[in-house]
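User: Teach me something about this protein's shape.
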Amino acid sequence: MALSTAHVHHQSASCRYLAVPWTHFASAYAALLAAASALLVHLVLSRAARRDGLQPASGWQSWLPTLFVVIASMMLPPTAVVIALTHKDAAETARHLGQPLCEG
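Assistant: First, the predicted structure itself:
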């Protein structure tokens, strides 16, 4: 799963395997870090509030952060798959780096 098809286009245009750009790795890991950080911050802040004897706020101040945590938790598996696919693509490219991509 690539961010854009520019990498594939450059490979096809040169008829050679080209290394996967570092931006693919950076964005995949950044997405995973952002989702995990959202879960961790929510957990730490809610436990600290309960430890201090505070009750969760009512209304939007309670359900909105919970909604964002649910969305972040749903994003963890897809971002892990994106990281795995990025590394798979890089491994395949590394095996064939510099070799002809086109037949004939």
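Now, about its shape. The helical segments are 6-14, 22-51, 60-96. The CA atoms of residues 9 and 15 lie 10 Å apart. If you'd like, I can walk through any region in more detail.
User: That's plenty for now, thanks!
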